[in-house]
């Protein structure tokens, strides 16, 4: 059994979850190359849909994801990575998780504070 990259045009959704506390950190996508590179290195690699290229998580920010476990779902078309998040932030906005906005009373509220300032980290 392995991920079925013949589905969904070769891009499978990937959930990155903190291996220590179970917090969902982010959702990204992998193609076969990203999956193979992740397995080979033990560090998360994804396919960037916006940039149309292989993306090593943390290549710019230093916030690397060390893969502790890899799971696939029952249909072999969704991947779950249990990771150790180095640097404290998975989100490019500086928050620990990409899911930092919580729906409450008709609106979304920000929970927590950023771990880093993205303007400082991503100087372009």
Compile the SSE list and pairings.
Blueprint: E1 12-18, E2 24-30, H1 32-41, E3 45-48, E4 53-56, E5 65-72, E6 79-85, E7 101-104, E8 107-110, H2 118-121
Descriptive keywords:
mainly beta; 124 residues; 4-stranded mixed beta sheet; single chain; two-stranded antiparallel ribbon; 11% helix
What name does CATH use for the topology? Ubiquitin-like (UB roll)
- The low-pLDDT segments are none
How much helical structure, as a percent, in the residues?
10-25%
List how many beta strands DSSP finds.
8
Give the strand line-up of the largest sheet: 2-1-6-5
**Could you describe the largest sheet, including whether it forms a barrel?**
4 strands, mixed
Rounded mean pLDDT is 96
Query: In total, how many domains does the architecture comprise?
Result: 1
General form: globular
Which class do the helix and strand fractions yield? mainly beta
Task: Determine and state the CATH class.
Answer: Alpha Beta
CATH superfamily: Phosphoribosyl-AMP cyclohydrolase
Strand content: 35-45%
Radius of gyration: 15 Å
In the CATH hierarchy, the architecture is Roll
Protein model, in words:
The chain has 124 residues and is mainly β. It has one domain (8-114): Roll (Ubiquitin-like (UB roll)). Helix content is 11%, strand content 36%. The strands form three sheets. The chain has a four-stranded mixed beta sheet, covered by helices on one side. A hairpin with a 6-residue loop joins strand 5 and strand 6 (79-85). The mean pLDDT is 96.
């Amino acid at each position: 059994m392995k991920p079925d990259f013949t589905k969904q045009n070769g891009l499978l959704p990937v959930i990155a979850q903190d291996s220590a506390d179970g917090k969902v950190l982010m959702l990204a996508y992998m193609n076969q190359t990203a999956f193979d590179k992740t397995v080979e290195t033990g560090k998360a690699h994804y396919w960037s849909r916006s940039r149309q290229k292989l993306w090593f998580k943390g290549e710019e920010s230093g916030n690397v994801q060390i893969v502790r476990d890899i799971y696939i779902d029952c249909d072999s078309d969704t991947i779950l990575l249990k990771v150790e998040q180095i640097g404290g932030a998975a989100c490019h906005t500086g928050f620990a998780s990409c899911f930092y906005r919580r729906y409450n009373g008709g609106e979304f509220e920000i929970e927590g504070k950023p771990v880093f300032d993205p303007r400082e980290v991503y100087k372009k």
